[in-house]
Specification:
286 residues; alpha/beta; Rossmann fold; eight-stranded mixed beta sheet; two-stranded antiparallel sheet; globular
């Protein structure tokens, strides 16, 4: 079956929706795609389908609890934070990918938040490496100047008021980020106000990040409207035990007018940016 909808079960008893993209022949590699904040797995389906159909790479995508097809019932009733997504949801997806394709080297492609938290995911030691796309520190002083200018209003006014009024963050209605469980947004807010970002959660979290030893290739998109290269380097500075390579991705070098924070995964990048993924996997194998 080339494309299969799955239900994953987390260790704490939650059901998540996932999709497996299978190549026609036994896969030469397997890839788990971890989404950005509030972005559903369906956004990554075109890339996942292309990798499976043309590159012989099996791919698993999934939705965190409260997001996309994994959203069930009122969002205000979802009791989760970002650490829940990492320790429960990502762990369940990683275990499924390893079980489904045991003979294939397993890689992680993280978009923004999906790359930030890899070191906090149980079982990440089995990964052959991670490709990070547009992931950097969310600390507000490390973000793009336009984001930085809006941050005081967002973090000190809008978010606290919205969480108090609704019990979750109604980002879709507010046209800011997207709908998020209250615990996720409250924790993310704390991180974005701390110079160490997620490292500011606790000494234990900082130690976990520092102990993660997987190879990381971090793509810093030069026209990213949210993140900066400074933020990329600040984030992966927390991964002290990892072998980190930061690569700048300049749109003009690929014949593109723009890429931005989300553009890497759009269908129009099939001929220009998407081949970076199988090339990265080949380099990891070599």
């Amino acid at each position: 079956m080339p494309e299969q909808a799955l239900t994953l079960h987390t260790a704490d008893g939650h059901a998540l929706t996932a999709t497996a993209f299978e190549p026609a022949a036994p896969p030469r590699a397997a890839l788990l795609i971890a989404s950005a904040m509030a972005v559903p797995q369906s956004y990554y389906a075109p890339l996942a389908r292309w990798l499976a159909e043309t590159q012989g790479i099996a791919v698993l995508t999934f939705d965190y609890r409260g997001i996309g097809a994994s959203r069930q019932g009122p969002l205000a009733a979802v009791r989760a934070d970002v650490l829940t997504w990492a320790r429960q949801d990502c762990a369940a997806a990683l275990a499924e990918a390893a079980h489904r394709w045991p003979a294939a080297p397993l890689h992680w492609l993280g978009h923004s938040l999906g790359a930030q938290i890899v070191g906090l995911v149980p079982g990440h030691e089995r990964l052959a490496g991670m490709l990070s796309v547009a992931a950097g520190s969310g600390y507000w002083h490390h973000t793009h100047p336009r984001v930085r200018a809006l941050s005081p209003w967002l973090w000190w006014v809008l978010v606290p008021l919205a969480l108090k009024a609704f019990g979750y963050f109604p980002g879709g209605r507010l046209r800011k980020i997207g709908d998020l469980p209250g615990g996720v947004m409250a924790q993310w807010r704390r991180w974005c106000l701390h110079p160490d970002y997620l490292g500011g959660e606790s000494a234990a979290v900082r130690a976990e990040l520092a102990a993660a030893a997987l190879p990381i290739t971090a793509l810093a998109v030069t026209d990213d409207e949210l993140m900066t290269e400074r933020g990329v380097r600040a984030l992966f500075g927390l991964y002290r035990g990892a072998r980190v390579e930061v690569r700048r991705v300049e749109p003009r070098e690929h014949g593109l007018a723009a890429i931005g924070h989300f553009g890497f995964f759009r269908e129009r990048m099939r001929e220009t940016l998407w081949p970076m993924v199988p090339r990265w996997i080949e380099q990891a194998a070599a």
